[in-house]
Amino acid sequence: MPDLVTLGIDPGTARCGFGVVAGPRNARALDSGCITTRAKDPLGTRLATIRDALADLIEQYPITDIALERLGYARRLTTAAQVAYATGVVHLVAADHGLPVEEYAPKEIKLAVAGYGAAEKDAVQAMVVRLLRMAAPPNSDHAADALATALCHQHSIRARTLERTLGVR
Known about the structure:
Blueprint: E1 4-10, E2 15-23, E3 28-36, H1 43-60, E4 65-69, H2 77-96, E5 101-104, H3 106-114, H4 121-131, H5 141-166
Parallel strand pairs: 1-4, 4-5
Antiparallel strand pairs: 1-2, 2-3
Helix pairs in contact: 1-2, 3-5, 4-5
């Protein structure tokens, strides 16, 4: 299986985490961080900032696919709406660049990365560091979540490829 270069996204309009992972064999982090927008800016400006940053990442790296963390739980309706707006921007940018998008629930990501669907954030972050052989943890929780999302996707792709190879349905 040729290397995938997955752009993992932890969506949000205030802070949108991203992680670029090459793999799935010998997975390695190529980049990670957090796209931050200013709360005082109009929503359209904030979404354009996210769009432009994602497009820059897609141009900078040979991205083959995008993995997106699906909204699992939001305490407030406005929080859910903000995540939904950012999710829409990710899908739009992916469509503009002809890239497939897969969405994963938080429990799926935790299970794939930490082996337990209810793992705590620090356990997931520790496994991200270990699986990607990183010298230090990512610079933000959002970046760590995005890297975990990319890893989840790569594990999923690898499992599906193996199933096809073995003729398992």
